[in-house]
Design goal:
The protein is an alpha+beta fold. Helices cover 50% and strands 20% of the residues. β1 and β2 form a beta hairpin.
């Protein structure tokens, strides 16, 4: 007889209600319910199933991957009351797999309706549990991803990974181990094991047995009983028993450098292919975190090297050049002291002032500051101050032609001033020039800095040896701020150093 629309809608309503009751009961990710909660669920289920109070009945649900449930639907539903009754089979899921039985003392129309409602409810509960598992997986992966990209220590990132993956696959224990160059475990992160158990175990694993196989063979291993496998190396005293096992290699750039493993799946079940897929995705996150940590350490080492080179270049371009200029200014001082003592005294005072400025520069380097010539002065003012310093230590006639509206940020200004210092130092030491000029201008989005002289010139392409780093330093400074450097010089016809830097329209 066809089911009436009213009857059909009530079946669906009751099935949805029963599914809401069964979902937390069956989901292994939820805490097991206590006896009072089970009694309340059983009473509500009897009402939704429409079973009469005088019909002894018991619902027994058993589905792979879910917590088994035993619900006495009436107070008299013990084994004696149901001994002569009937067990009505339950089917659930897309593949209509066996899901348990509804035991009743006798066959009634209400019992068959209850089977129908229960099967619909189980289908709904399976869908809900699958959706919850998917949401938990996404949330856990999000947490692992966030930890991987956040500025956390590697140990904290790996701890997040093992803490998140363990409940996803229903494991009691999880651990992540990394190995050193000799294959020995050097880092061991655990989840699910309390401090007392860890203290009782003592030392961390050495990477023997199955843990070593996962790394050396570089493949996932699933076992129903770890303790029974002939490759197992055994457990130290105080170690909890571990049977179901799932171990996945952790790779960095394709090479296994550790493993992520889980043991003791809830309810004594074995790990399955879906668990394997989940754990492998978390192992990939662990590999990324380890690779990031190694790259960060390498970048730190490179930063130290680069900072040493920068300081060396700054010392060469600034402090050493200043001292060299002082030396040049004092070369013929003895003769001048005899011919013009007052002029010699002024030169000595200027040299002392220059040395004091150099001492201040050295102190600034010690405290990680920039050379003092900038201070709080704008770029043009800093170049004017540099020119004054040059004139005090050189007989070259230097002219500065700088536009007042040139503005750059602090780091660019530092590099421009140091590049100018290096170029002027080369003029003082090597050019043999009578005249020199510094030009600074900006137009059509390009800042142009020119340092020129009428000296003897040189071949810019020639190798002048490691002692003459000036050209190399100037090119490096120009590149560091996104500029280009051209050096035009012909032996006997002076030199022009030209830096062009895109700065945007002003």
């Amino acid at each position: 007889m066809p089911t009436s629309p009213v009857f059909g809608s009530r079946v669906r309503r009751d099935a949805h209600g029963l599914a809401a009751l069964l979902t937390p009961l069956l989901c292994i990710a939820e805490d097991p319910p206590d006896a009072p909660t089970v009694a309340l669920v059983a009473d509500a289920a009897r009402f939704l199933l429409g079973l009469p109070a005088d019909l002894p009945a018991r619902l027994e649900i058993a589905l792979p991957g879910l917590r088994p449930a035993l619900l006495p639907l009436t107070p008299e539903a013990d084994d004696a009351a149901l001994a002569g009754g009937t067990a009505l089979g339950l089917l659930a899921g897309a593949d209509d797999r066996s899901a348990g039985v509804l035991r009743v003392a006798r066959r009634t129309p209400e019992a068959f309706r209850a089977v129908h409602v229960t099967e619909l409810a189980l289908d709904l509960a399976l869908d809900r549990i699958a959706a919850q598992e998917a949401e938990r997986r996404v949330t856990a992966l999000d947490a692992a991803t966030a930890a991987t990209v956040a500025e956390l220590s590697l140990e904290r990132v790996l701890q997040v990974i093992v803490d998140e993956v363990r409940p996803l696959v229903g494991a009691r224990y999880a651990a992540l181990a990394t190995t050193d160059a000799r294959g020995r475990i050097d880092r061991f992160i655990t989840s699910g094991m309390d401090d007392a158990t860890r203290r009782a175990i003592g030392h961390i694993p050495r990477g023997l047995g199955i843990l070593g196989v996962v790394v050396t063979e570089g493949r996932t291993i699933r076992l129903a009983d770890l303790m029974a496998d002939p490759r197992a190396a055994g457990f130290p005293g105080g170690h909890p028993p571990m049977h179901a096992f799932l171990g996945v290699p952790v790779r960095v750039e394709g090479r296994p450098i550790g493993n992520l493993y889980l043991t003791e799946k809830r309810d004594g079940a074995d790990f399955d292919a879906e668990d394997e897929e989940i754990v492998e995705s978390f192992a990939r996150h662990a590999g990324i975190a380890i690779r990031n940590a190694r790259l960060h350490a390498e970048l730190g080492r490179l930063a130290v090297v680069e900072e040493r080179e920068r300081i060396g270049a700054d010392l060469h371009d600034g402090i050493i050049q200043s001292l060299y200029a002082v030396g040049l200014s004092l070369e013929d001082l003895g003769e001048e002291m005899r011919e013009d003592p007052e002029s010699a005294e002024r030169r000595i005072e200027q040299a002392i002032d220059a040395i004091h400025g150099t001492i201040r520069d050295i102190r600034n380097f010690i405290f990680g500051l920039r050379p003092e010539v900038l201070g709080d002065v704008e770029l043009v003012g800093a170049i004017e101050a540099l020119a004054d310093e040059f004139r005090r230590g050189s007989a070259v006639d230097l002219r500065v032609d700088a536009a007042d509206d040139v503005e750059v940020d602090g780091e660019v200004a530092v590099q421009l001033v140091q590049l100018t210092r290096e170029a002027l130092s080369n003029v003082a030491r090597h050019a043999g020039a009578r005249n020199a000029i510094v030009e600074l201008s900006a137009g059509q989005g390009i800042l142009t800095l020119v340092i020129g002289d009428d000296g003897r010139g040189f071949d810019p392409q020639a190798d002048h040896g490691p002692a003459h780093r000036g050209v190399v330093n100037m090119r490096a400074r120009a590149e560091s701020i996104g500029g280009t450097l051209e050096i035009a010089s012909v032996p006997g016809d002076g030199t022009r150093v030209v830096l062009r830097l895109p700065v945007g329209d002003r």
